[in-house]
Design a protein that fits this description.
Number of domains of chain A: 1
Strand content of chain A: under 5%
Strand order of the largest sheet of chain B: 6-7-8-4-9-10
Number of strands of chain A: 0
Largest sheet of chain B: 6 strands, mixed
Distance between the termini of chain B: 40 Å
Shape of chain A: globular
Largest sheet of chain A: none
Order of helices and strands of chain B: EEEEHEEHHHEHEHEEEHEEHEH
Distance between the termini of chain A: 23 Å
Largest interface: A-B, 25 and 31 residues
Number of strands of chain B: 14
Radius of gyration of chain B: 24 Å
Helix content of chain B: 25-40%
Order of helices and strands of chain A: HHHHHHHHHHHH
Strand content of chain B: 25-35%
Oligomer: heterodimer
Number of helices of chain A: 12
Radius of gyration of chain A: 20 Å
Chain lengths: 260, 302
C-alpha cells in the first residue's frame, strides 16, 4: 500500500496540470481578495468586510476555485483509465480496494496541499493589506472554517467517487459541474421548500450545497447569524455521513468492476 | 512438468453473450504458450481474466508460483500502458516504485535488453513521441521490471518492423531459456508464433477448441492426393496398410504421416491410377488453425 501511495503521488505530481492549477488557485484567490479590498476602500473609505471574513468568503464562495481544482483532478484521475496505466497496478498484484483507497488518499493529500498553499498566500496577502479584524467567538470562527474544509473534503470524495465509478471524464465532469455550479442556483430558488419539510430538505443530497451557499454568502449578505454553532455541527455530521456512504459505495462497486 | 496456471470452467458473460465460455487451460512452467484465435474469439478477454483486470462470471483459476512475491505476473494487454508525458526512464522508475524497488540501476539494463539503447543518451524524449514499436519494446521492459515468473503478451509483434519482430522473438526465447520465464503470447502472426511456441491453445467463439504441444502438430498432418480415377483405390490403400483415409470425389485424404509421398505414388501407379497432385496438408500452425476453425464452422452449418 505504501508503494502504491508513492506511485500515485508521483503520478499526480508529475502532471503539469497540478502546477497550472496551483498558480490559478493562488491568482484567483489573491485576485478576488484584491478586488474586494480595493472596492471597499474606494467606495466606503474603509473596509466593510474584514480579512477574517474575506479570506473565508474567497475560498468558499461557491467554491469556483475548488471546482476548478477538482476538474483538474478529475482529468488526472481519468487518465489512469484512458491510458490504461491502471492495469499496471492490477497486474502487479494490488487488490482493487488497495488501488481505490490509495487513489483516494493521494487525491485528498494533493487537493488539500494545493488548497492550503493558496489559502496561506491569500491569508498573508489580505492580512498585510487589511489587517485581520476582530473575532468575537474564536470557537465558532474555527468551526466555520472546519465545516467548510469538510465540505471541500466532501467535494473531493465526490469527484473521486464519480471518476472511479464512470472511469471516464465526460459524465463525471458534467455531473460535477452541475452539482457544484448549477445546483446552488437551483437551491436558492427551491429554498421555500424547506418550509414544507425541513428535515427532508436538509437530508437530501442538496444539503451540502445549502451549507455552502449559506456559509459563503453569509458574510457578504449579512446573514451569518443564520448558521449557529449547532447547525455547523449538524452540517459536519451529515457531510461526514455522505462521505462515508460514497466511500463505502465506491469501494464496493470498484471491487466488482472490470477494467479495459 | 509442473503446472503454473490452471483455469477451471473460466467464463465471462456480457449480457447474453459468452466472451469466454467454460475455458480449461493448463500452462506448464517454462512453456511458451501460443494463444490463437480469430478477432473477437475471446483471447484478450481471457488474458484480462487471468491477469485479474476483469472478474470472471464463473469458474476459477489457480497459479502455482515458485515464490510468492508481488509482480509474479506481468502483462501487456492490447495497447501499451505507459505514461505518455513521461520519458522511458521515468516510466520504468514509476514501475519500480510500484513494485517497491529502491535500486534504479536496473533501468538502463532493461532498456538495453529490449533494444532501446539509443534512449540511454536521449533521456528527454517523451513516450508520446515514440513509434508504436518503441512503445511495445518499452512495455516489455516495464513488464520485466518485476523479474516475473509469468509474462502475458497480447499481440507483442504489433507495430514492430521485421528487425523488431526478430529482436523480440529472440528476447522471448532468451528469457524463457535463461530465466525460465513462462510466456503466454497471443498473436495473429502465426508463422512468427510457431517459431517460438512450445504449446498452443486455440480459442474460437469463446470456447477452447484444442490445446496441444507444438510437436503434436506433426501428428495432425495429412496427405491430400488428387487422382485420375478412384478405381482400385481401396486395394491400393490395403496394400499400403493405410486405415485412416477418406475419399471425396477424386481426392484421397490420408491421415497417416508415416507413409511417404513416393510410396503412395508408386502404389497408385501399380494399380493404374495417375496422380494429378499430392500435397502434405497441415504442416504448419496456420493451416492447422484454419483447418480446425473450418471444421467447426462446417459443424455449425451441418
Amino acid at each position: 500500500m505504501k508503494n502504491l501511495i508513492r506511485y500515485d503521488l508521483r503520478r499526480i505530481l508529475k502532471d503539469k496540470l497540478v502546477i497550472i492549477v496551483t498558480i490559478c488557485m493562488v491568482a484567483l484567490e489573491i485576485g478576488v481578495s484584491g478586488i474586494f479590498i480595493a472596492a471597499f476602500r474606494y467606495s466606503a473609505g474603509n473596509a466593510i468586510m474584514q480579512s477574517k471574513d474575506l479570506i473565508f468568503f474567497v475560498y468558499s464562495s461557491f467554491n469556483y476555485g475548488i471546482t476548478f481544482m477538482e476538474i483538474m483532478l478529475l482529468i488526472i484521475l481519468s487518465k489512469e483509465y484512458t491510458q490504461g496505466t491502471i492495469r499496471n497496478k492490477i497486474v502487479a498484484g494490488y487488490s482493487k480496494s488497495e488501488i481505490y483507497f490509495s487513489n483516494l488518499l493521494t487525491t485528498v493529500i494533493c487537493c488539500f496541499s494545493i488548497f492550503l498553499f493558496a489559502f496561506i498566500i491569500n491569508f498573508v496577502f489580505c492580512v498585510s493589506l487589511n489587517g485581520f479584524g476582530e473575532v468575537n467567538n474564536i470557537g465558532t470562527y474555527l468551526l466555520k472554517h472546519f465545516s467548510q474544509m469538510i465540505y471541500i473534503l466532501f467535494l473531493i470524495v465526490l469527484v473521486h467517487f464519480l471518476s472511479s465509478t464512470f472511469k471516464s471524464i465526460g459524465a463525471p465532469l458534467g455531473i460535477m459541474i452541475g452539482l457544484c455550479i448549477g445546483l446552488p442556483n437551483i437551491l436558492l430558488m427551491l429554498s421555500p421548500l424547506s418550509q414544507i419539510n425541513e428535515t427532508a430538505y436538509y437530508i437530501l443530497m442538496i444539503f451540502p450545497q445549502h451549507h455552502n451557499v449559506m456559509s459563503s454568502l453569509g458574510p457578504i449578505m449579512g446573514f451569518a447569524s443564520f448558521i449557529e454553532t449547532q447547525q455547523y455541527l449538524y452540517y459536519i455530521l451529515i457531510e461526514l455521513g455522505y462521505i462515508a456512504l460514497m466511500i463505502f459505495g465506491g469501494v464496493t462497486k470498484y471491487r466488482k468492476s472490470d477494467f479495459k | 512438468m509442473s503446472i503454473l496456471l490452471k483455469t477451471q470452467k473460466l467464463t465471462k458473460k456480457y449480457k447474453n453473450q459468452f466472451a469466454v465460455d467454460n475455458v480449461n487451460v493448463k500452462i506448464n512452467k517454462g512453456d511458451i504458450y501460443g494463444f490463437i484465435g480469430q478477432n473477437g474469439a475471446g483471447k484478450t478477454t481471457f488474458i484480462r481474466l487471468i491477469t485479474n483486470i476483469i472478474n470472471p462470471t464463473s469458474g476459477s483459476l489457480e497459479y502455482h508460483f515458485t515464490e510468492n512475491k508481488p509482480g509474479n505476473i506481468s502483462a501487456i494487454v492490447e495497447t501499451p500502458s505507459l505514461f505518455t508525458k513521461q520519458t522511458a526512464q521515468e516510466n520504468l522508475k514509476a514501475q519500480f516504485i510500484l513494485l517497491g524497488k529502491t535500486d534504479f540501476t536496473q533501468i538502463d539494463e532493461l532498456l538495453q535488453l529490449v533494444g532501446l539503447d539509443n534512449l540511454l543518451f536521449d533521456n528527454k524524449k517523451k513516450v508520446g513521441n515514440f513509434s508504436l514499436g518503441m512503445k511495445q519494446r518499452l512495455s516489455i521492459a516495464v513488464a520485466l521490471a518485476s523479474n516475473p515468473e509469468f509474462v502475458v503478451l497480447d499481440e507483442p509483434m504489433n507495430g514492430l518492423d521485421p528487425e523488431g519482430i526478430v529482436a523480440i522473438r529472440e528476447l522471448i526465447l532468451k528469457l524463457n531459456k535463461e530465466k525460465n520465464i513462462t510466456f503466454l503470447i497471443s498473436s495473429h502472426i502465426l508463422t512468427e508464433l510457431s517459431k517460438i511456441a512450445t504449446r498452443y491453445g486455440i480459442i474460437h467463439r469463446g470456447k477452447l477448441l484444442k490445446e496441444f504441444n507444438a510437436n503434436e502438430l506433426d501428428k495432425n498432418q495429412h496427405t491430400e492426393v488428387v487422382v485420375s480415377s478412384t478405381n482400385n483405390l481401396l486395394s491400393a490403400m490395403q496394400n499400403l496398410a493405410v486405415t485412416k483415409y477418406k475419399i471425396i470425389d477424386k481426392t484421397l485424404i490420408i491421415n497417416d504421416i508415416e507413409i511417404k509421398n513416393s510410396q503412395i505414388i508408386a502404389e497408385l501407379a501399380k494399380n493404374g491410377i495417375d496422380v494429378i497432385s499430392i500435397n502434405k496438408i497441415g504442416e504448419n500452425i496456420e493451416d492447422y488453425f484454419l483447418y480446425l476453425i473450418g471444421e467447426k464452422q462446417n459443424e455449425k452449418l451441418n
